Amino acid sequence: MEVLLFGGTGEGRELAEWLRDQKIPATVCVATEYGGVLLPQGVEAHTGRLDQAGMEAVMLRRPYTCVVDATHPYAVEVTRQLRAAASKRGLPCLRLLRTSDGEDRCHKAGSIAAAARMLEKLPGNVLLTTGSKELSPFAVPGLVERCFPRVLPMMDSLERCLALGFPPGHIICMQGPFSRELNEAMIRQFDIKTLVTKDTGGYGGFREK
């Protein structure tokens, strides 16, 4: 048995560690070098963003018996391409899902853009924990000045925030997941009135937020 694991989440790293401990050969694909650094020691990694053709090429390199999709729950396009690539190569594709940790005391929005429109009607500072790739809807006059984006400590994340016009002093570059205590400290420090997040389940720290 040999596993090709597409990671990028806490669940993916945990599975990679389990496969290593069970001495099951596995390769873990992550999109960035930073993602590779987060993997457990002794885990074989393939670093770099892949389109469907690239995924198929990786699948051909070794006699893999299955593909495991442990990418982020909101990476819908990646999951679609991964399933298509595995199907084309005749490999079973398993999806590792995190359980939802929904909370009824939240304002729910159907999209990032809808969340940004909602914020325009709410007062006070905003802690954005949606990731650097989905900040554009919040980068509008009257809202961008109130937002504190929390992003990964990577140059492209910081540069994206600056290019969108978020105040430099509002940009928080940190690696999660974060404890409830740290979230509370940030909320107090920056006088946050609204926190924006995705329903990322246990590993994503939804309950702590």
Structure description:
There is one protein chain. This protein has helices at 10-21, 33-37, 52-59, 76-88, 112-119, 155-164, 180-189; strands at 3-6, 26-30, 44-47, 66-69, 93-95, 125-128, 147-151, 172-173, 192-196. The longest helix is centred in the middle third of the chain and has 13 residues, at 76-88. With 209 residues, the chain is of the alpha/beta class. The chain is built from seven helices and nine strands. The mean pLDDT is 88.
Main sheet: strand order:
3-2-1-4-5
Please tally the helical runs, counting DSSP H or I stretches of 4 or more residues: 7
SS content category? alpha/beta
* Poorly predicted regions: none
Helix content: 25-40%
Could you report the average pLDDT, rounded to the nearest whole number?
A: 88
How would a textbook summarize the main sheet? 5 strands, parallel
How many E strands? Answer: 9
Q: Give helix and strand order, one letter per element, not per position.
A: EHEHEHEHEHEEHEHE
Q: What is the terminal-to-terminal distance?
A: 39 Å
Keywords:
209 residues, alpha/beta, five-stranded parallel beta sheet, four-stranded parallel beta sheet
In short, what is this structure?
The protein is of the alpha/beta class. The chain is built from 7 helices and 9 strands; from the N terminus they run βαβαβαβαβαββαβαβ.
Write the layout of secondary structure elements.
Blueprint: E1 3-6, H1 10-21, E2 26-30, H2 33-37, E3 44-47, H3 52-59, E4 66-69, H4 76-88, E5 93-95, H5 112-119, E6 125-128, E7 147-151, H6 155-164, E8 172-173, H7 180-189, E9 192-196
Parallel strand pairs: 1-2, 1-4, 2-3, 4-5, 6-7, 6-9, 7-8
Helix pairs in contact: 3-4
